Amino acid sequence: MQLDEDTLENTVLKIDVKIRNAEGLHMRPAMQFVDAATRFDSEITVSNGQTTVDGKSIMQMSMLAATFGTRLTINAQGSDAKDALEALRELVEVKKFDEPAPGQ
Amino acid sequence: MEIKKGIAVSPGISIAKAMVVDSEDYRIPRRTVTPSRRMIEIQRLRNAFKDAINELTGQDAFKDEMAQKNVKDIFAVHLRFLRDRSLRKKITDLIQNESVTAEYAVSTTLRDIASHFSKTNDTYISERAADIYDIERRLLKHLLGRTREKIDHLTDEVIIVARELSPIQTAGFNRDFVKGLATDAGGRTSHSAIVARSLGIPAVVALEDLTETVRGGDIVIVDGNRGIVIVNPDHETVTQYRDYSQEFLKLEHRLDGLREKPAVTRDGVRIKLLGNIEFPDEAEIVLEKGGDGIGLYRTEFLYLNSPTEPAEEDHYKAYAETVSVFKRRPVVIRTLDLGADKYTQSKRFAPEPNPFLGLRSIRFCLQNIEMFKIQLRAILRASVLGEVKVMFPLITNIQELMQAKMILRDVMEDLDDESIKYNRDMPIGIMVETPSAALTAASLARDVDFFSIGTNDLTQYTLAVDRGNELVSTLYSSVDPAVLRLIRTVIQDANKARVDLSVCGEMASDPENIMLLLGMGVRTLSLASPMLPEIKQIIRSVNIEECNTLARKVLTLNSERQISGYLRDAARKILPEAF
């Protein structure tokens, strides 16, 4: 996690995550992601390298169509940016949206 | 001004504002609105989102703790989409920037998203397109549902423009305000056509892309005499049509004077004129137009209008209402004649490859005996209220007739056991509408009280022509020599066996065919009520001797073109102003 600016309000943080559940970011995981992101005040965007979308919009998140193994960059800007990124990373990489990994 | 040519299916002229009715089942055409209407469309969109969210959160499965997790997940996803601001903005922007209707904006936006999913290589994600279509349907349902409510509570005169109308859409039509119908699809026997004729409003169908040309509120002229629809006519055209419409009304009024007069030929032969109806409240119209009873009471609306199978009481109420209008005059109730439509297809596992040769009509009833018995019970119970007759459609052989009669006897026994009254001698008849029934009429006649020739299906099956198919529809003609020969056979066999005979197809409501039918020996005709006065006028203008001569001549002609030309000339001489 790298710190771009010092002032708390305008903190812009980003992390890279990898989709680890077998079926990828389909509707239900997209919904979980959006629900988690919406709990924070920070603006959250997600990028797959080609497009950047609003992390609080299920339409935009699901249209990323991120399959297993896809790398995503999550950006957060706002007072709770750090907590937001930590929560989202845990959801994607640790909890894996409560779904099985391939072969599991 | 734009002139569109279609098929005229119900006579008359109407000039009114268009009301465009879309349907969830069809692609929503791109239709623009005036810039000032954009705010209204955006408000309609907002309401649709609100209604869809309310519907979803109110749904039982959503609240039910026990509901399956995946069902709840699907609903939860739908809800997130409906609450997604960027989705709503995308649709609103489309309305704002391109001045299109809310229906079109919803449909296009969501279909774009769905196709984005379909294109991904991951099968799991590409299957999610189905969810997007569900969300589209949810929103459209609310947008269109409100239009439907509007149709049911009209306050201004309108002409309904649609791709095709379903029985549910037409059921709420108010005769005082719906002044005409114009549809993209359909033929003379389509649902829209039948409804228009029974309401006595002008209609033109098969206009192909009319719904893409017309915007709600445009002035539209429906010319149901010539099969023309004019969108945004210029001043001169409107004036012309007003005059023409006045003339037409005058003719109609003159014909109304015939109501009390009997349908007798100049040489004193009495012809029975009956009405074809679909809904119970049309019975009054038949009476108004001078009909002697009901020769064909279609009962399909009972099945098509309700989401569940009609109960015996639903049948009974409808039949009792109709019979009470006619008391001592005949009412011929035709048993369920469906097939190849949503209702019967929903009861099947797979759609039929060849529905018109498939499980339809009496065949469907004989395979769904419990359903069939419910209708027969109701008909028998109504039989004590007047002169009810029952008629089986699409009989193709004697076994089917015997089987249908056996089921009727079973139902009679059930009623006996329950001491419920019915008319034990209720006349039983069949539609003769297949070549096989026509060719075996002599033997079928031994087991029935009457025949009714259904010329629409008889023509279709004899000539192997689907008249809804514009590539071959010109081959369809009820006065084709092959069809006429079958009709002659049926009439002769009916006379020999002394069973009653009527003609209830479209053929009987075409003024040009009346002399021919009388000359061939037909004495009972059943037709759409708006045509009754005109046909009566023709009957009163001819004598049987000249009809006989005409029929003899026609039966020697070998081509359809010769016959229809000959009939047209003869009819023009009898009643010049009607042509």
Unreliable spans of chain A are none
Secondary-structure element pattern of chain A, one letter each: EHEEHEH
Number of beta strands of chain A: 4
What class do helices, strands and sheet pairing of chain B give?
alpha/beta
Secondary structure tally, helices of chain B: 26
Major β-sheet of chain B, in short? Answer: 8 strands, mixed
Cα-to-Cα separation, first versus last residue of chain B: 27 Å
Proportion of helical residues of chain A: 25-40%
| Average pLDDT figure of chain A | 88
Strand percent estimate of chain A:
15-25%
Task: State mean pLDDT of chain B (0 to 100 scale).
Answer: 89
Q: Identify the CATH homologous superfamily of the largest domain in chain B.
A: Phosphoenolpyruvate-binding domains
CATH class of the largest domain in chain B, named Alpha Beta
Oligomer: heterodimer
Rg on CA atoms of chain B, Å: 26 Å
Helix content of chain B: 40-55%
By CATH, the architecture of the largest domain in chain B is named: Alpha-Beta Barrel
CATH topology type of chain A: Histidine-containing Protein, Chain: A
Whole-number tally of structural domains of chain B: 3
Tell me the major beta sheet of chain A.
Answer: 4 strands, antiparallel
Gist?
By secondary structure, chain A is of the alpha+beta class. In chain A, 31% of the residues lie in helices and 21% in strands. The mean pLDDT of chain B is 89.
Which keywords apply here?
heterodimer; A: 104 residues; alpha+beta; Histidine-containing Protein, Chain: A; 4 strands; 21% strand; B: alpha/beta; Glucose Oxidase, domain 1; Enzyme I, Chain A, domain 2; 3 domains; 8-stranded mixed sheet; 26 helices
